[in-house]
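Exercise: predict the structure of this protein bound to 6-phosphogluconic acid.
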Amino acid sequence: MKFETYSTSSALVERATEFFMQTAAQSIQAHGRFAVSLSGGSTPRALYERLAIAKFSWQSIHLFWGDERCNPPEHPDSNYRMTAESLLNHIDIPLENIHRIPGELSPAKAAEAYEQDLRGFFGVSPRFDLVLLGMGDDGHTASLFPDSPALAESVRWAVAAEHTTPPPPLVSRVTLTFGVFNAARRVIFLVSGAGKASRLAEIQRGCDYPAARIRPTNGEPLWLLDSGAAGLLV
Ligand code: 6PG
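Solution:
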């Protein structure tokens, strides 16, 4: 596994920003666009705020999300709302480049609508240029939680996922599935905080948490960590 550890959150954010911008530039040069799946939760907010002030053209960049809580976009728990507050409201990006998961719909209808959007964009196979993921302290990633039926999904690209046990928020979700994440050209995890350290150490030892099942065919993920999250790694 490829881990990079940074002693301060600003150093971690700068590294993630550099990786994001380099990958975007390479993708746009190679095939005219950069399709990225963003992560939710709280960790990426600082990265999105940094990207919002970067000297950067967003015209050829398409933003998707790896998962969404089934709430309206203005809800405090919405990943879209967190991204809008930290990034979208501060950049010049064509509206059609923002591929929001319609969390205001029922979980099944939201997943169906999102999958149609993805298939309209990618065609027969989804190939993100970059997937940004986080990890919960239970080892989940996106909304692929331990013991969830969504872990076994091998046909659909986006599915509804019930979520009734901690970590919060305990609300239905829509999540991309392993097949989509593992087809990506590059995957990075952004993980911070000592609360993630024990789970990360178990993953390093080979424990099969959902986050450990992200194994892109194009090369293993890069884990960008702060010293808290990396505290128990060997
Ligand atoms: C979500 C996220 C989720 C997140 C982890 C870590 O919708 O909750 O997509 O997978 O990345 O739960 O969350 P924190 O960054 O808040 O620790």
